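Progress narrative, Year 2. Work on phosphoserine phosphatase from Acinetobacter cumulans advanced from sequence curation to structure prediction during this period.
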Amino acid sequence: MKKMAFIDMEGVLIPELWKHFSTVLNIPELAITTREVADYKSLMKFRINLLKENNIPLKKLVGLIKEIDASPNAKEFLEHLKNNKKFEVKIISDCFYELLDPFFDQLNLPIDNAYCHNFEINSNGYIENVIYNRNKGKHEIIVDYQKKKVPLKNSIAIGDAFNDFTMLHLVDHGFLFQPSEEVSKNSPFYFHKVESYQEIIQYLTNNRVA
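Result:
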């Protein structure tokens, strides 16, 4: 059985989408992310209300997504994990299928290997609510694998924000990728803080996680 690599999308493999929306739409409050706010559900209620107040439907956001590319070398990093290090890559993201669709193609990731959320859209095309893939946190996905007796020895997890902490706790090797000062300051000492994909690859090689 391949080892598992549980990886976040925004801030790790792709840019922070809401920061892009904030800049293009000129709504500074949309730039707030889980690097600053730990309570994701409260953050999403705040974002949805902002979009409604500014009359921004989902199709507007989807159009803006087309302007964004995955992070440089992200695809090559994933291919290296899969082909050279023999990891099975699983995406665990608090983003939404409706926004991530173009990136699955860019990164050569099967959508079946992703655990994301969905938007609930009203008849006028505006985001009304969130249909959550899980209730408590990203760790729930890993716990499900544990319950199914899937071998997770030497598995890794990569995230960048507070909402990634719970999944990083459950693997042998947890990486914080380019964390903010606030996230870094409040993270457990045993999380590995890295600034590049190459640092992760080097760590896996040096520690023979292959």
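The first helix runs from residue 17 to 25. The CA atoms of residues 165 and 188 lie 9 Å apart.
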